[in-house]
Each structure stands twice: as structure tokens, then as C-alpha cells.
Specification:
By secondary structure, the chain is mainly alpha-helical. The protein has helices at about 5-30, 30-150, 155-200, 220-225, 230-240, 260-275, 280-310, 320-325, 335-355, 360-370, 385-395, 400-405, 415-430, 440-455, 480-500, and strands at about 210-215, 245, 255, 330, 335, 460-465, 470-475, 505-515. A hairpin with a 2-residue loop joins strand 4 (about 330) and strand 5.
């Protein structure tokens, strides 16, 4: 608050006090009270003046301090701006010096280029003069030749070119035919030789895996312990392992039934431990099954490591080694997957060596080509594409990745080893005794596949190709639209998936085309 305003307030307060005091004095009509009131009023005014003076001095001091502070801030800002301006000026001067130096250098180069240009122009003039003289000599020489031959230069040139062209064309056709015939003969012989040698040099197992395992018992009394009271033990074993236990009239034996060899092996080892231990109850069953599963995982890793060492494959990722070991407990049409992969790898190495390629890389691709059949999680990808994805994830060579993904033509073949892996995979699966499916079952499956598609309205023809891996459905264009084609393909695929049993996957292709035919008479 301003000192003047404070003084006014103090004066007004004193005046009010005086008026009040005066009224009191006049009300009592005593002179002494009037004098005392006047004296008090004077004292109040003096105190107010002294206080106002003190406040005024304090405000003046505050104003001076603020002024000094603002002045120092302003001086500091001015110094900073001057310093920045000085730095900018120095940079500008340095740039000017650099530009001047570059300008001088460019002027010097320009002068040198002018000198070089003048020299080149003089040389070009000399060359042009010599060219003119040469053309004159050439024209004179041509005139002399035309006079001697009786033909112009153009006529002679065209006759010579036509004769040479006809002769070269005839020779080229003959040579081309000879090369094609020779290449076909040699290619067939060489391919047959390589395939036969590869098969002959590979020893393959012909044992076929079953979907059941027989667990032998010392006595039939143990069957009651395995079944347990009201069947609780056998239910606990089936729930923990995912395997069906068949306890029938077969003496001293229990049949373990499951499509998964890994589950059957876990159930067999668990039963063996439970029987030898004698303590069979649900809690103990779960504990033994879990322990067996962990030990089998270790065994899978050991099988994978032993396999890659025996095959001479190095630098394989640990996860891929585990998947290789896991293939020991998988089968395809009764053929053990690990044995099939090892056989394919050996065939690939031999065939690649015969063709002068890298046998180690081919063997690596052959061993890993079916790793997509043993995934840890269920996926919608086919085993070839899934295997390629896993190989790429764990840092395999692009040629190996492509060979894995393309061995069922689901990827484009980009490397030479890809068709080798495909051929060796077919050789391993097609040899006698390798696969379980008999001819009658195969033909019936193909027939059922085609009949399933023909049952839909608008379907004209249906063909199962690629050994039942693809179903081609040809529909009538007038009855089935493009939108209906998509729907029909989906419905057929779903019906195949729910009603049929088949290996691998089946691709459903619906073909719709419109043909307009007329005859010109």
C-alpha cells in the first residue's frame, strides 16, 4: 500500500477519534476533557506521521533493491547477447574465408579446364581431317572393287549375308536337334544312375510301428492293483498319460493303445515303475508320470544329439536338436519319422555328391525336412511351411529353409538342393515296406474323396490328385457363382476334415470357367 494512502487513513482515524472525543467532552460540558481529547488527538497524529515516515522509507528501500536487481539482470542479458553476436560474427567470417578459398580453387580449375578443352578441340580437328582422308580412300577402294566384280557393295553384302544366314540356320537346327537328343539320353541315364546308386548305398529299416504297446506282467494279480478300487487307478493313469489301458483276458499282459508313440512310451515306463515300486494310487501315479515325462524329455535331447553326431551335422540349434530327437517317437503311415529323416538325409548327401554339390548342406536339409511334424504347439500351418518357419527362426541356411518348405511344392523352389530333398523324401516313403497303407485302402480313400465333392449341387467333375493331397473340383458356371465357389471350397474342406481320416492335409481347389463355343460352317 502507498505511504500517502496510509497517512490519509491514519489522519481520518485520528479525526474520527477526535470527533468522538469532542462529543464526549461536549456532552459532559467540561473544559478539562476537551483539553485531554485535544492532547490525545495531537499524539495520535504525531504517531501516525512517524509511522507513515517509517513505511515510506521501507518502501523506498525495497524499490531501490528491486531496481538494482533488475539492472543487474539486464546487464547480464546484454553481455550474453553480445557474446552470442560475437560468436555468430566469427562463424560468418570463417565461412567467408572458406567460400573465398573455394572460389579461388574453382577459378583455377576453370582455367585448367579451358586449356584442356582447347587441346581436345585441336585433337578433334586433327582426327576429323584424318577421318575425311580415310573415307576418301575407302570410297576409291570400293569403286575399284565394284568395277572389278561387276556388283555394287550393297548387292555383294546382301548376297553374302543371305548365303551365310541360310547355312548357319541349317547347321543350327541340326546341332540343336543333336544336342537335345543327346541331353535327353544322358540326363535320363544319369538321373537313373544317381537314384539307383543312392538307394543301393543306403541301408534302411523296414520295421513298421504299431499303435499299441503290450505291457507284460509277472502275474495277473497285479492287474487288480493297476485297476484299483472302483477303477480309480486305471482312470488316473489314462487321465495323466492320455493312453487307453485295455485289460482283457490276455494272460499277464496289458495293452496300451494310443496313436501317439510318445504317450505310449510315457505310459509304459510309468507302469513299469509303479509295478516295481508296488505303491499304486492316484497321487503316486501323477507323480511318477510327471517324473517319467521329464526324464523322457532328457532322453529326447540325448537321441537328438546322438543323431546329429552320427550324421556329422554340426552347429545345429539346441531346439532343432530336440525336435530331431522328438521325431523318434513319431511315425507317418507306420514309418518311424526319425528313421525316415535319416534315410532321406543319407540319400540327399549321396545324390548331392554325385551331382557335384555340397553334400553336407543337402544332408542337413534332408534331416530337418519333416521337423514340422513334431511341433510343440498345434498350428494351422502345414508341416512343410511350419518346418521352414522353425528352421528360419533358429538361424538355418536359406537353402535349407527353402528345401524344407518346398518339399511338397508349397513354396517356390529357389535352390538346387530343394528338388533333391523332394526326390529323396519320395524315394524313402515309396520303397517297399516303408508305409503301411495298402493299395485297396488308398484307392477307397481317393474314391470317397471324389464322391464327397460330387455330392454337392453344381459340381460337374471332381479329381483327387497328388496322391490324395489335393482335390480339384470343377463346377458349372451357370449354376455356381464366384461367391458360391469360395463357399463351396470351404464347405468341402470342412466336410473332409470332419468325416474322413487322411494323412497330412488336403487342399480343395474349386475351378469355375465359362466356355462359349460356336462352329463356323
Amino acid at each position: 500500500m502507498e505511504p500517502t494512502v496510509q497517512l490519509i487513513i491514519i489522519g481520518v482515524s485520528a479525526l474520527i477519534v477526535g470527533i468522538i472525543a469532542g462529543r464526549l467532552i461536549f456532552s459532559k460540558n467540561t473544559k478539562k476533557q476537551i483539553e485531554e481529547a485535544e492532547y490525545q488527538a495531537k499524539n495520535i497524529l504525531k504517531e501516525a506521521e512517524l509511522r507513515a515516515e517509517t513505511i515510506k522509507k521501507e518502501k523506498q528501500l525495497e524499490a531501490k533493491e528491486k531496481y538494482v536487481q533488475l539492472k543487474s539482470d539486464y546487464d547480464r542479458d546484454v553481455l550474453d547477447r553480445n557474446r552470442k553476436l560475437g560468436e555468430i560474427e566469427n562463424k560468418i567470417k570463417q565461412k567467408e574465408i572458406s567460400i573465398n578459398q573455394k572460389e579461388a580453387s574453382l577459378d583455377k580449375q576453370f582455367k585448367e579446364n579451358e586449356v584442356i578443352k582447347d587441346n581436345l578441340n585441336r585433337q578433334i580437328e586433327v582426327v576429323n581431317m584424318k577421318r575425311t582422308e580415310l573415307e576418301k580412300h575407302q570410297e576409291e577402294h570400293i569403286r575399284r572393287l565394284e568395277k572389278i566384280a561387276g556388283l555394287s557393295a550393297e548387292e555383294a553384302k546382301s548376297q553374302l549375308v543371305e548365303s551365310l544366314k541360310a547355312e548357319a540356320h541349317s547347321q543350327a537346327l541340326t546341332l540343336q536337334q543333336e544336342i537335345i537328343e543327346d541331353a535327353k539320353l544322358k540326363a535320363n541315364k544319369e538321373a537313373r544312375k544317381i537314384v539307383i546308386q543312392s538307394i543301393q548305398r543306403t541301408a534302411a529299416e523296414v520295421t513298421i510301428e504299431n499303435t499299441v504297446t503290450v505291457f507284460n506282467l509277472e502275474t495277473d494279480e497285479i492287474k487288480g492293483q493297476i485297476i484299483g478300487r472302483e477303477g480309480r487307478n486305471i482312470r488316473a493313469i489314462e487321465a495323466a498319460t492320455g493312453v487307453d489301458l485295455i485289460v482283457d483276458d490276455t494272460p499277464e499282459a496289458i495293452i496300451l493303445s494310443s496313436f501317439d508313440p510318445l504317450r505310449r512310451e510315457i505310459a509304459r515306463l510309468s507302469l513299469q515303475r509303479l509295478v516295481s515300486d508296488g505303491r499304486i494310487h492316484p497321487a503316486r501315479i501323477e507323480e511318477v508320470v510327471e517324473k517319467t515325462r521329464r526324464q523322457l524329455e532328457e532322453q529326447i535331447m540325448e537321441i537328438g544329439e546322438r543323431t546329429v553326431i552320427e550324421m556329422g551335422i554340426h552347429g545345429l540349434h539346441k531346439e532343432l536338436v530336440r525336435l530331431v530327437g522328438k521325431m523318434r517317437f513319431r511315425s507317418s503311415y507306420g514309418q518311424n519319422l526319425l528313421m525316415h529323416s535319416r534315410e532321406t538325409a543319407n540319400l540327399c548327401a549321396i545324390m548331392a555328391a554325385e551331382l557335384g554339390m555340397n553334400p553336407k548342406l543337402a544332408k542337413r536339409a534332408g534331416l530337418l525336412h519333416d521337423i514340422g511334424k513334431v511341433p510343440d504347439e498345434e498350428t494351422e500351418l502345414t508341416h512343410a511351411l511350419l518346418g521352414a518357419k522353425l528352421a528360419e527362426k533358429y538361424g538355418e541356411n536359406p537353402a535349407v529353409v527353402n528345401a524344407i518348405g518346398a518339399h511338397h511344392d508349397e513354396m517356390e523352389m529357389q535352390y538346387v538342393i530343394s528338388p533333391i530333398v523332394q526326390a529323396c523324401d519320395a524315394i524313402s516313403g515309396a520303397r517297399p515296406g516303408a508305409r503301411r497303407e495298402i493299395m485297396q485302402q488308398y484307392l477307397q480313400r481317393i474314391k470317397d474323396l471324389e464322391n464327397l465333392a460330387m455330392a454337392y449341387p453344381g459340381v460337374e467333375k471332381a479329381y483327387a490328385i497328388q496322391a490324395g493331397r489335393e482335390l480339384r473340383v470343377i463346377v458349372e458356371a451357370d449354376k455356381v457363382s464366384d461367391v458360391d465357389s469360395d463357399k463351396l471350397s470351404f464347405e468341402i474342406a470342412q466336410k473332409i476334415q470332419t468325416e474322413m481320416t487322411y494323412p497330412g492335409q488336403i487342399k480343395v481347389t474349386v475351378i469355375r470357367e465359362k466356355r462359349a463355343i460356336n462352329v463356323a460352317r
